[in-house]
Amino acid sequence: MSNINTVLAEKMQRLDAAKKKFAATKERLGKELTTQDQLEQVNQMAEREFKESENMQDEVEKQIRKEKDELFKESQKLFKLRAEQANLIGDISGTLSASRNL
Prior knowledge:
Helix content: over 70%
Number of strands: 0
Strand content: under 5%
Shape: rod-shaped
Order of helices and strands: H
Radius of gyration: 43 Å
Distance between the termini: 148 Å
Number of helices: 1
């Protein structure tokens, strides 16, 4: 009989230890789930910010291309005007030379 009581006491102790271990594991799981939720929220926020920064980058790149095109067009106009200026200076010089010879 005392043998049965000893076995029963041992099993009760193991049961109590298992219950404590289960409770600790359950608590740890709850904390991990909370942490996971927080990390997922941070991750979602980071993804939104990343998409916003990508959109901003696309807009800036688009603006840069537009400005480069505008600069190129203005450079072409300037080149044509300088060529015209050189022709006019040549015409003026020629006219001055011709008038001196008269």
